[in-house]
Write a structure and sequence with these properties.
Length: 259
Amino acid sequence: MRKIFLPILIAFLVVVFAGVVVKAQDRATSSSEARSEAADRARDRMAQLKDKRATIAAEKKEKIKEKIRDKFRRRAHVFGEITAISATTITIETKQGSIKTIFTDSETKFLQLGKGGKKEIELTDLKVGDEIAAVGIAKDENEGLAKFVVRFVTPQVRRHAVFGEVSEIGDNQLTVSHLIQKDKPTTTVKVTAATKIKIKGKENASFSDIKVGDKVAASGIVDENGVITAKRIFVIPGKFEGAKPKSATESATPSSSTD
């Protein structure tokens, strides 16, 4: 009986031991697989975190670039003459001959600069032929949305000349009378540091060299009051009397005749 029981016991112990070993191996395998999966998950999280950081960095970089572009656009502008206008679009031609399309919206502001200072205007105040600057569009762009549209109004410069006799001399100005028609209004001629004065036979002539009674020819820019700011003044030498009105004279004596 003992001979039979001992082998059975040994076999049972072997089976139990083998089962324990197998279970230990299974646990070791499961633990290894779990560690491998955990490592994979950790690597995935690190990769995702890296990608997220890269995305955030790229977005920040793009925002910085956009701010720089916005700052540049606020200062950039194109200048030209209006060739066409629609409800929200202006077409201009630059001095270089390029065509620019300017878009406007409810945020676009319109200004006018020129005589009278600066004032706000509307898109409807613009017309073909006006010279404008569109702020917010770079010179290398053919089109864009304008933040500001500025119209420049240049006052017309009227040049004028007067010839006559100096009747009065004041503080840096002359009063010039008509040579013949003394009842005509006089002309005031302002003299500045830029006025060139020419007197025959005298070098470096100045305002102090002009005297009452001198015959002068003055040319320059006239204002709305008729005052000339002289660019040049020529003092006519000699006793120039000017043109005299023609007198009526008989053209011929009667001819004799014979009967």
